[in-house]
UniProtKB/TrEMBL annotation:
Its cofactor is FAD. Residues 222-370 form the Acyl-CoA dehydrogenase/oxidase C-terminal domain. Pfam families: Acyl-CoA_dh_1, Acyl-CoA_dh_M, Acyl-CoA_dh_N. Residues 5-117 form the Acyl-CoA dehydrogenase/oxidase N-terminal domain. This is Acyl-CoA dehydrogenase. Residues 121-210 form the Acyl-CoA oxidase/dehydrogenase middle domain. Belongs to the acyl-CoA dehydrogenase family. The keyword Chaperone does not apply. PROSITE patterns: ACYL_COA_DH_2 (PS00073).
Amino acid sequence: MFGRSEEQQMLVVSIEGAIERDIEPVIESYEKDEPVSKSDAKAVLRTLSEQGMLGRDIPEEEGGAGLDHTDWALMFEQLPMQVDLLAMISSEVARTVHFTGSEYVRDTYLGPLLEGELIGCAAISEPGAGSNPREMQTIAERDGDEWVISGTKTWISNGEIADVAMVVAETEAGKTQFLIETDADGFHRERLEMLGRQYDHMAQLYLDEVRVPDAHVLGSPGEGLDRTYESFELGRANVALLGVKTARNALDDAIEYAQTRDQWGKPIGEHQLVQQLIADSATYVDAARLLAYRALHRFDEGDRASAESAMAKWFATEMAVEVTSNVVQVHGGIGLSRELDVERYFRDAQMLTIPEGTTQINKLIVARDMLGLSAFD
Ligand SMILES: Cc1cc2nc3c(=O)[nH]c(=O)nc-3n(C[C@H](O)[C@H](O)[C@H](O)COP(=O)(O)OP(=O)(O)OC[C@H]3O[C@@H](n4cnc5c(N)ncnc54)[C@H](O)[C@@H]3O)c2cc1C
């Protein structure tokens, strides 16, 4: 991204205004690690809906925003971290409902998801199946024109407050994706406390013979895993931007601190080894951002971007871990204090190397695409 078009600049200015006016006052009423309430989450989503952030690449004539992935990402980069994953995942659920839902599911759920009246989550991971979703144990069995689903899903972002969950389960036809209402009989959930990104609504979901009508299958039975892998490609480029944002926010704080904190009679930013920490960090942030936008550009061209998005994801999230560590170092002792945001950025960055494929899994994808040889089999 070497510059923004006039249209992109207008999108960014518009979302910045909405954030300042409607979203920051909500977030500022919470402690720095505190998740926003469900009603505030919906208020935020309604604001983002007006900006087209929930409609993403769904065509305008079908209720979406008709945006390129790069345009959406430019807006996404502006979102406060407390609500970015909320918007990313709920809008991803809307996309999946639009592109794969039955007529009934689209008529019932798409509008409310696009308007921010419903919150979505995507449930693939299980206690025994993380990096390898093929090993999942959640099962769905047909019973007349319904499916009966049982299993446990874990580390589900938005899971604590979602109204609808996209759940992948094993069926006779293979892995299949379903849309489930979270107030269905047999559906329970429990918040998970994490090291970082404590403001996210992370939960474990329990499905005990949850019944859904046949129309709630997304795509066709047996397609669930392929669809999931395809959605991971786009998700990885967007998670890369979460890494970029985390590192960028931390770096901004480090620059300001290095300019204003004096030791040996001058700003610490004049000491050459502090300059090195800043120079390394600034270079890594820009490199990661370019990798993310290269992948997004390929999606805009209608291509897949398996290696490009895997490179962006592992590099940007490992980069965020390193940069936030550099930033704590630049701050000295106060960098470890709860008083400042930098300790939170450091904890938040650690969360990003795991989802949407761990660093190791993404490196295996890159190597597979380079070598034509897979370490997965
Ligand atoms: C912040 C966050 C948000 C998340 N959001 C969601 C969500 O919304 N929905 C959802 O379904 N899941 C979500 N997850 C879960 C996430 O997808 C899994 O945690 C991830 O896939 C890794 O699975 P695991 O934790 O079981 O680790 P494991 O798969 O058990 O891996 C443990 C370690 O072994 C390594 N490893 C595993 N296999 C290999 C291999 N073949 N070669 C080399 N190394 C290997 C891994 O890299 C890792 O270091 C989220 C997780 C986090 C942290």
